[in-house]
Amino acid sequence: MKMKNAVNIDDLRRLARRRLPRVVFDYLDGGAEDELTLRANRRAFDDLTLRPRLLGGGRVDLSTEIFGQSYSAPFLIGPTGLSGIYWPEGDLHLAGAAAEAGIGFALSTGSNASMETIARRIDAPRWFQLYPWGGPEFSEALVERAAAAGYSALILTLDSLVGGKRERDLRHGFSHEIRMSAPVVLDGLMHPRWLASVWFGRHRPRFENLIPFLGDAASDRDLAEFTRSQRNPHFSWEDVRRIRGLWPGPLLIKGVMCAEDAIRARAEGADGIVVSNHGGRQLDGAPASLSVLPEIVAALDEGATVLLDGGIRRGSDIVKALALGAQGVLLGRAPLYGLAAGGREGVARALAILADEMQRTMILTGCDAPRHLGRDHLALRTDPPP
Ligand code: FNR
């Protein structure tokens, strides 16, 4: 299938499943344990219905300002690690497609391209995501580098003190690196284009942000081992305050799922939060991120920036999140399915699909701008979903 024939994100997901070996697709697609939260994220959108108003959305303008920067739409590509395992130089294609579409992009600590490489090659606004790993010197070094490389906002992800129990990955023996066991080799041989371009290609995915900690001679295995060894379950709110003091720009806390933590994040100096359960990859049994959004919006002051992620697969999902009070949303898997299906063209396709669907939904809902979306555009569902 050609990229332009993919009519929705699910088509791109199917293409990704075809192109990737199972171990790689499952890392992208899967969630923790019974994947209850993964499914709940989707169901929450399905359970929320829109309340259309006639004739109000003739001139829709999706453009949105976040932290003083104007973007073409209220969604951005969120941080995801290891994106080079889907397509060579995956991070560059995600950042490049975001720049071409005029939307935001956040680079993960666990990216394959280093933050300096992205800054050099993609001239567009970008954010950096920091994991609460290691001791103070680890975060200090990364925060300094992000500021020096021109990243404008910092996302501190706090829902990952330990890794979620991702059972698809455990079954494949996958943990930050692909081990060439017999089943994996066989599966790789069944996906020769992936094998040739990613595994035997010129840009083998490695954790390039972390090379300065180990030196240029570090092997892929050393870097993967380093990421596993840096988890720090003792990371605390005092550390959040310390990082606040180090970072000159806007700071977002990602992984907030209740009003108390949203208030605490604000009290520690965060400019905003990302309501997120990590796409159902961490705490299984956590509620859908959409379902906790109203209590969080209600608890925060007007000045706080509230973003949401988890389960966004349709333009109408973005409309629903904004109607419940988010200023914008982060995309996780949607652009990754595009990347795995067709590189930069696939990411661009995912972004175009979502922008088109959002535009259409706004017109049909009778709303001309994201900032005008509100509760009156939602109807609470009374019948069970099909
Ligand atoms: C993630 N996510 C993530 N979050 C983060 O803060 N740092 C990271 O490195 C990663 N890595 C990562 C890898 C993969 C493969 C996925 C799918 C997700 C979580 C991500 O930012 C976001 O919270 C979720 O993906 C949102 O849910 P959806 O849109 O994927 O349903």
Could you please describe the fold and organization of this structure?
The strands form three sheets. This protein has an eight-stranded parallel beta sheet. The longest helix has 33 residues, at 333-365. The protein is an alpha/beta fold and 386 residues long. The mean pLDDT is 94. Strand 8 (251-256), helix 13 and strand 9 form a beta-alpha-beta unit. It contains 16 helices and twelve strands.
Topology:
Layout: H1 9-19, H2 22-29, H3 36-46, E1 48-50, E2 64-66, E3 69-71, E4 75-77, H4 90-101, E5 106-107, H5 115-121, E6 127-130, H6 136-148, E7 153-157, H7 167-172, H8 182-190, H9 192-199, H10 211-214, H11 220-229, H12 237-246, E8 251-256, H13 259-267, E9 272-275, H14 289-299, E10 305-309, H15 315-323, E11 328-331, H16 333-365, E12 378-380
Parallel strand pairs: 4-11, 5-6, 6-7, 7-8, 8-9, 9-10, 10-11
Antiparallel strand pairs: 1-12, 2-3
Helix pairs in contact: 1-16, 4-16, 13-14, 15-16
The structure holds ligand FNR.
In short:
This protein has 386 residues and is of the alpha/beta class.
Jot down its keywords.
386 residues, alpha/beta, eight-stranded parallel β-sheet, two-stranded antiparallel sheet, 16 helices, 44% helix, 12% strand, globular, binds ligand FNR
- Estimate what percentage of residues fall within beta strands: 5-15%
What's the story with the biggest beta sheet?
8 strands, parallel
Biggest sheet, spatial arrangement of strands: 4-11-10-9-8-7-6-5
Overall body shape: globular
The total beta strand count reads: 12
Helix content: 40-55%
Distance between the termini: 29 Å
Mean pLDDT: 94
Give the C-alpha Rg: 20 Å
User: How many individual helices?
Assistant: 16
Q: What are the secondary-structure elements, in order, as H or E? A: HHHEEEEHEHEHEHHHHHHEHEHEHEHE
**In terms of structural class, how would the helical and strand content be classed?**
alpha/beta
Bound molecules: ligand FNR
Poorly predicted residue ranges: none
